[in-house]
Q: What sequence folds into this?
């Protein structure tokens, strides 16, 4: 197994409980592996940090005494209808979660267990659904959110009275200010009265004992930060009924927090930005009112702009833009298809990004498109199919051939799905709404896609290079001829 494949398998486990989309698993994995090498505190400092030697990652001390002392108490507080959610029980629950349950998530040796820890967190949050009131659920959400946000914000060096330094985290009452903008803590001046500071052993440090606060040179592992963002995205205002996950209501406060993060991409690392987008994707799946959809769309639309992700790792930037396009497709606001068409037609953009736009088309209910727009779609899809072939041909010709017939077939299949519709819903394809004349041209494109797919099926990664070149080049030329036919019309 190659090093790249090992890296992909390692990080895919981080998301295996989060989404069924295989492309999400593989894409994010490689991104975070590369991020872990440098783990920059700020996106603008990435280039300098990429060359840094392996870092020592910060860890919250795991207090095993909290497990033996309070695990049963925490269970009762969360699920026993007769157990009150008072100040005493809230303190027990917070100490158990912060000093033991969530502290485990920061240990480098536990990285492979992060998906399981996240699953256990969802399980414990679900326990609160048995309570008569929402108090236990809200306390669980509040404590979980505050600790996860602290992990995302990272480690600080606190200079205490006398000049000694301690590594600390800041538990913020809220990561949003009064205008719902992201409130980032970097110095003592950024703190609010309700914010608290704890050292890495879990002890509270009084504010009047600290003379200076600054970001530390050590930090939590990037996988820990990504996991924290994913935990945030899992939180609910209403817990799902047993066996009915679709009955859950995602936490509105978390949605507002994620929007605040996404509105400030310039201060987020690749890891945090990817995690916030992944969490937002879950919220986008749920029913939202039109105004909230518009607000989310406005936020993610900016992230498709290449200028917003410039300076980041190229693989990270591409992933971020693809995820933003996917969310736009899920929101399915009016005129989304026109924006996606422009992405599909953009020959200067990566094929993967344009394919993401094609996949997003499949999430829309297309209607009311003019014959000219449908023709543009046909020409754009034909050109994209050709470009996918040319890209695979270049991969086959590279010194270390990375040709993949399966990858090419998947891309061509995405184009075909945009034409015919996907799954059981054949009414969401372009051909279903095309007038007779444009429908004939689209049908010709579908026939060509099927023909080329059949030819590619005869290839393997170890096929003779000349045969690979002949088949893939022939496919590209077929699509180019269709593109030229559209231009003549």
A:
């Amino acid at each position: 197994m190659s090093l790249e494949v090992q890296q992909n398998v390692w990080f895919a486990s981080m998301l295996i409980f989060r989404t069924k989309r295989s492309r999400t698993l593989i894409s994010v994995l490689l991104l975070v592996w590369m991020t872990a090498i440098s783990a920059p505190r700020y996106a603008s400092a990435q280039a300098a940090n990429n060359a840094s030697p392996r870092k020592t990652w910060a860890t919250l001390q795991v207090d095993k005494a909290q497990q033996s002392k309070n695990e049963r108490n925490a269970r009762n507080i969360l699920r026993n209808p007769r157990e009150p959610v008072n100040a005493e029980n809230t303190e027990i629950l917070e100490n158990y979660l912060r000093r033991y349950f969530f502290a485990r998530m920061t240990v480098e040796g536990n990285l492979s267990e992060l998906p399981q820890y996240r699953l256990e967190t969802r399980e414990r949050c679900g326990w609160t659904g048995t309570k008569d009131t929402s108090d236990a659920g809200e306390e669980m959400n509040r404590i979980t959110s505050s600790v996860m946000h602290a992990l995302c914000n990272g480690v600080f060096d606190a200079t205490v009275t006398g000049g000694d330094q301690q590594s600390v985290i800041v538990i913020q009452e809220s990561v949003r200010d009064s205008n719902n903008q992201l409130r980032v803590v970097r110095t003592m001046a950024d703190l609010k009265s309700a914010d608290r500071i704890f050292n890495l052993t879990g002890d509270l440090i009084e504010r009047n004992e600290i003379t200076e606060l600054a970001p530390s040179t050590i930090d939590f592992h990037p996988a820990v930060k990504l996991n924290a963002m994913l935990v945030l995205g899992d939180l609910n205002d209403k817990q799902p009924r047993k066996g009915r996950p679709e009955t859950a209501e995602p936490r509105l406060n978390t949605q507002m927090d994620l929007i605040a993060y996404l509105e400030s991409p310039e201060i987020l690392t690749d890891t945090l930005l990817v995690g916030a987008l992944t969490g937002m994707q879950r919220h986008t799946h749920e029913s939202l009112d039109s105004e909230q959809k518009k607000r989310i769309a406005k936020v993610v639309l900016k992230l498709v702009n290449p200028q917003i992700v410039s300076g980041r790792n190229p693989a990270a930037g591409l992933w971020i833009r693809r995820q933003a396009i996917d969310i736009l497709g899920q929101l399915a606001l009016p005129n989304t298809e026109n924006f996606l068409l422009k992405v599909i037609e953009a020959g200067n953009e990566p094929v993967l990004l344009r394919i993401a736009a094609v996949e997003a088309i499949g999430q829309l209910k297309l209607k009311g498109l003019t014959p000219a727009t449908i023709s543009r779609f046909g020409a754009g899809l034909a050109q994209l199919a050709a470009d996918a072939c040319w890209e695979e041909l270049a991969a086959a010709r590279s010194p270390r051939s990375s040709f993949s017939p399966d990858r090419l077939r998947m891309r061509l299949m995405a184009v075909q799905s945009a034409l015919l519709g996907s799954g059981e819903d054949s009414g969401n394809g372009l051909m279903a709404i095309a007038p007779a004349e444009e429908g004939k041209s689209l049908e010709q494109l579908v026939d060509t896609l099927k023909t080329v797919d059949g030819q590619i099926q005869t290839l393997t990664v170890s096929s003779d290079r000349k045969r690979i070149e002949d088949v893939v080049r022939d496919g590209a030329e077929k699509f180019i001829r269709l593109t030229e036919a559209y231009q003549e019309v």
In short: The chain is about 60% helix and 5% strand. Residues 1-52 have pLDDT under 50 and may be disordered. Strands lie at 156-160, 165-171, 196-199, 204-205, 210-215, 236-238, 249-250.
